[in-house]
Amino acid sequence: MSWLREHWMALKAALAHIRKAPGGFGFNVLVIALALVLPLAGLTLLENLRPVSRDLAVEPEISVFLSTDAGRERAKAIAPDIKAAAQRHGVPVKLEFIDRDQALASLKARAGLSDVVAALGSNPLPDAYVVRIAGSETPASPARIEQLAADLQKLPGIETVQLDSTWVKRLAALLQLATTVLALLAATLCGVVLAVVFNTIRLQILTRQEEISVARLVGATDAYVSRPFYYLGALLGLCAGALALLAVGGGLMLANTSVGELARLYGSNFLLAPLDPASTAALLAASMALGVTGAMLSVRRALRIAA
Question: Could you tell me the pTM of the whole model?
Fold first, then answer.
């Protein structure tokens, strides 16, 4: 019980310091919150984009376009060659033949394109195959699929081979790069937060230097002297983290006006969502930990000098 009483008294002392100078405390909270806003906003954006990238990362398809001068018999006969190439690379596939006449009819059916297609005269579209990578217990590696696409390009009668999952890989690589940059930015701004808390606590110690000296003369331990400053650092971190999360939430509400309009144009109801409660609590705890760490560094340095 005495342990709880000591911590309660330390918390009351920290709150008393805040009441004496609320302006200075509020300014320091604002500075720390500004440092935290950018990494928190970046983390929120990444967490919103990750499910989208996972949904897009479907099994890749290979589009095989035949030469326009290839006859229908050659177009039909090339299917076994495609399957044999896939079997050599250990890639299970399913083939879908796209007839050039059916493709032209589909193109004519699209609004606004019938006159354009009619002006072309002859059918400019080639026969094509869609090579879908079939699911299995041991999925084919990207390297084998890329090698298969390269080998299909060498088959006679094939004009162009297109691997449709390339852009998904690029998106995943961009997300990985963004994650790395965000981690570096967060580490840098954590240093800024520590510096601000360190300086704030140092100034508090300097203004209470005589009070601390008297307390140590009458037997106060270093832990007793330090505890109120630890709570002050924790309150700085907690308030700054909460303010930063509120700012990010307000920014999401403003951004969703434009994001929702853009998503509707693509037939989607995608909106940016705030972080889940567990992540929010973890970020507040991390912000408090930064505040306590900065206070510990400052107090230990001050007590070492005073000794």
Answer: 0.64
In the beta sheet, which residues pair with residue 93? Answer: 133
Q: CATH number of 61-164: 3.40.50.720, 3.30.70.3040, 2.60.40.10, 3.40.50.410?
A: 3.30.70.3040
- % of the chain surpassing 90 pLDDT: 5
Please answer whether residues 196 and 31 qualify as being in contact, where contact means their C-beta atoms are separated by less than 8 angstroms: yes
DSSP string covering the chain: -HHHHHHHHHHHHHHHHHHH-HHHHHHHHHHHHHHHHHHHHHHHHHHHHHHHHHHH----EEEEEEPTT--HHHHHHHHHHHHHHHHHTT--EEEEEE-HHHHHHHHHHSTT-HHHHHHH-S--PPPEEEEEE---SSPPPHHHHHHHHHHHHTSTTEEEEEETTHHHHHHHHHHHHHHHHHHHHHHHHHHHHHHHHHHHHHHHHHHTHHHHHHHHHTT--HHHHHHHHHHHHHHHHHHHHHHHHHHHHHHHHHHHHHHHHHHHHTT------PPPHHHHHHHHHHHHHHHHHHHHHHHHHHHHHH-
Domain limits of the chain?
2-56+169-306, 61-164
- Tens digits of per-residue pLDDT, 266-288? 777 888 888 889 989 998 998 89
Work out whether strand 128-133 and strand 93-98 pair parallel, antiparallel, or are unpaired.
antiparallel
